[in-house]
Each structure stands twice: as C-alpha cells, then as structure tokens.
Amino acid sequence: xxxxxxxxxxxxxxxxxxxxxxxxxxxxxxxxxxxxxxxxxxxxxxxxxxxxxxxxxxxxxxxxxxxxxxxxxxxxxxxxxxxxxxxxxxxxxxxxxxxxxxxxxxxxxxxxxxxxxxxxxxxxxxxxxxxxxxxxxxxxxxxxxxxxxxxxxxxxxxxxxxxxxxxxxxxxxxxxxxxxxxxxxxxxxxxxxx
Length: 194
Description:
The chain is of the alpha/beta class. Helix content is 36%, strand content 19%. The protein has a 7-stranded mixed sheet, with helices on one face. Pfam families: MTS (PF05175).
C-alpha cells in the first residue's frame, strides 16, 4: 500500500468513527447535535439581559456556537457549556480554546448544580425540555433568566417570545423562574405538584 492509500484509508476510518460516534450519541440523547444558526444567535442576542449576576450556563452546547456569542456579549463572566456527544464536545472545546472565560465540560448537566446561575441558555429537543422543567425549578436561583430557542419549556410562563427571521421563523423564548405558575393548591397548569 502506498503512502497516499494509507492516508486515504486512515482518513476514511476516522470519518467513519466520527460519524458513528455522532449517530450513537444522537440515539442515546434523542437528538442530533445541530448548531444554532447565525440568524437565531442574533435574535437570542437581542434578548440577552444587559447585565448578569452569576455564572452563565449553556445546557447542551453542541458545537459551541452559542458559547462564542455569549462570550462576546459577556467577556467578563464565567461561561460553562455542557455537551455529552464526543465529536461536538471536542469541536466546541477547540473553537472556544482561545476564550479564557469559557469552560466546556463533557458531562450530563442533569448531574451538576446550577444554584450560582445568572443566565441559562439551551437548545434541546422537546423531551429534553420537558425533563429540564423540574430540574431548573429545583436548581435555579430566583429571577435567573432562561433563554431557549425552537422548543418551549413546558410548565413555565414565557416573559417574551420572538421569531427569528430565518427560513423556519424559529421561536426564541425567555423565561424567569419567578414567573413559573403554581396555583394556590400547589398544582401547576400541567397538573404536576408545584
């Protein structure tokens, strides 16, 4: 085998391994890692609070695109992104390596604490958002904003919702823990105990 053939086989094998890793993690997590488009990022950026008191978290940071936008907007804040899928995690780690205020962790964020959060952003699938509901209600300090796009956070009242000017008219939502609705009986509109 020539050197060129060897390199071709090596690169092909690495491509198959990377693709296989993404497919396996997608099956495990229930969603493929999809970067947030620039148009949606700009829409989210318009909704960011002027100031944040506390740590900034990106839950399911994927390829790191939102981390870079957050770092640009909040250069003096600590920002942590969580991603479980190996290839997007490595990519996010690489593209944010020049930013000293960003940490990317290959970890399930459901196994971490967010009690120091000043802002949370996320782009998860509907099942992930449903699971996020009780987790954030338990973890977040009062008044901490949560900004998500594409999928709503069930059980929470949105403060604001705007549509991005992209092909899909992607929805961007802003929530705040203090605005979650729990009736005097302790039962939320979704029928869960509050």
